[in-house]
Amino acid sequence: MLRKILAMVLLLVLPMLPMLAEAQGMPVVNVLTAKGGVTQYSLTLQLLALMTILTLLPSMLLMMTSFVRIIIVMSILRQAMGTGQTPPNQVLTGLALFLTLFIMQPVMTDVYNNAILPYMNQGMPFEKALAAAEEPIRGFMMAQTREEDIGMFLDIARNKTELQGPESVPFTTLVPAFLTSELKSAFTIGFLIYIPFVVIDLIVSSVLMSMGMMMLSPMMISMPFKLMLFVLVDGWSMLMGSLASSFAMP
User: Where are the alpha helices (DSSP H) in 88-169?
Assistant: First the structure.
């Protein structure tokens, strides 16, 4: 199971393998002696590039999965309930991460079986392994991306080439289009989640106004009712199930 979880990470590490192979035996730090006996130290460009890729690796990994939609919906839910920092950010991030692993498990399994294992054990060429790993991820993102978002980024890139199918969409165009579609979907789900809590706020505010308790904060009174409503309808199970089913592959 751990191997399958690490499949996505290994996928993004694959493009760095040629650089690592060339870097074997490469000095980490160049030591130069200038005039006057002054010693200067400088990092190699290959090492700087590798460090930059490793820094961006978590963001690259999360931006091509279901993590964005999940964490945004959970953040909107917390704001709608008015619970401040409860659940805390660490809990929401951990819950979103493990739900992402659950949703992405078929994709990770496909990448691991068709790209990672053949590349590591059977000597599959790097180009073929990268293409095999890209196919399931591309399929997942294409299933969640709106056509108008792809068209918008193609227009921005001034790409006049007629596409022959989903596989011909450039990866550099698909990723921002996927993120844009995920943001739209997340805010749409967040809007639907927000409505019941807004209704509770309006009812509590109207009752307090009619009773002349205008100095009492409606948010303080409505929050227990929001929590009770969310618990009675088994809100967490409904939310997790709805988010997972929203990523169902066609």
Answer: 89-111, 117-121, 126-144, 147-156
